[in-house]
Amino acid sequence: MKKTFLTIVMALFTIVSFAQNDEVTGVRIPTGYQGFVEIGNTLFHFDKNMQTTIQLSTTHGANFNEQLYAGAGVAFEMNKDYLLVPIYVNFRYLFMSRSIASPVLSMRIGSYFNKQIGGYADLAVGVRFASKRDFAVSMLLTGSYFSNITRTFREEWEDPYGYYHYELVERHISPSGLGLRVSIEW
Q1: Over the stretch 79-104, which tens digit does the pLDDT of each residue have?
Q2: Interior CA angle at 22 toward 16 and 28, to 5°?
Q3: Which phi and psi (to 5°) does residue 116 adopt?
Q4: What burial class does residue 71 get, using C-beta atoms within 10 Å of its C-beta: 0-12 exposed, 13-18 middle, 19+ buried?
Q5: Domains of the chain
Q6: 17: helix, coil or strand?
Q7: How far apart (Å, rounded) are the C-alpha atoms in residues 97 and 59?
Q8: 3-class DSSP state for residue 92?
């Protein structure tokens, strides 16, 4: 019990001393206009037939204070079967804006476009590494939701006499899943 209590006290002491040190580090505190360029992928799709996707996005907006950001952006989510173009509003919250390394929470809500229109939402949590200049990098774990996409597939089969047949079948696929994203901000 004493070891647990001592460990907690030492951890709190470290956090407090680190927080006091943040004021001296000269880390850039986000204010005014802020832009983001991000690259990411979705590795684990909720639809087992989906493959890994790549996402490129840019978001532009403003900080309301040191911690709260709001902006709008556009992304391109693609794999070999489709290209989706989400347009969204983005909200970010920095938990320790004066720190070199700060936890960050980001949420996107909007719609995607391709041959059809659907809903889009994205929740990301990660760490932001700030520099003393006007630059920061974030590494985020993301959970993305896209409403189902209707795709037409060609199903082929061979009958007992050796003839091949096919038919066009419509299926709903879901590119929603979990992934990683790297964000550069200025």
Answers
A1: 887 888 999 999 999 998 888 899 99
A2: 150
A3: -135, 170
A4: buried
A5: 2-185 (2.40.160.20)
A6: helix
A7: 19
A8: strand
